[in-house]
Amino acid sequence: MTEKTETNQRFCGNCGSHNAYNYPMEVFCTNRFLRNKAAIVKTLWCCEEWHLNPQKCECVEEAKKKRIPRT
């Protein structure tokens, strides 16, 4: 059984169209690529074409850790 992603937060990193690119801060969006739009996007960004990825992915959690400065 696979773990589910959180559905209350929409990020490119938990969208079904994302693929690893510059992990964890950037992802390659297949959907944007097919629509001739900029395909390299920030993991914590989200566009109007977002759709839930039903499998757990660490992209969002890792990007959040890198975004917040550690003290």
Short summary of the structure?
The chain is an alpha+beta fold and 71 residues long. It has helices at 30-34, 59-67; strands at residues 18-22, 26-29, 40-42. Strands 1-2-3 form a 3-stranded antiparallel sheet.
Strand content: 15-25%
The secondary structure category is: alpha+beta
Number of domains: 1
- Biggest beta-sheet profile: 3 strands, antiparallel
Give the rounded overall mean pLDDT. Answer: 87
Principal-axes shape call: globular
Gyration radius from CA atoms, angstroms = 12 Å
Order of helices and strands: EEHEH
Count of beta strands? 3
Helix content: 10-25%
Number of separate helices: 2
Low-confidence stretches: 1-5
First CA to last CA: what distance?
37 Å
- Biggest sheet strand line-up: 1-2-3
Can you put this structure into words, describing what you see?
The chain has one domain (1-52). Helices cover 20% and strands 17% of the residues. The protein has helices spanning 30-34, 59-67; strands at 18-22, 26-29, 40-42. Strands 1-2-3 form a 3-stranded antiparallel β-sheet.
Topology record:
Layout: E1 18-22, E2 26-29, H1 30-34, E3 40-42, H2 59-67
Antiparallel strand pairs: 1-2, 2-3
List keywords for this structure.
single chain; 71 residues; alpha+beta; three-stranded antiparallel beta sheet; 2 helices; disordered N terminus
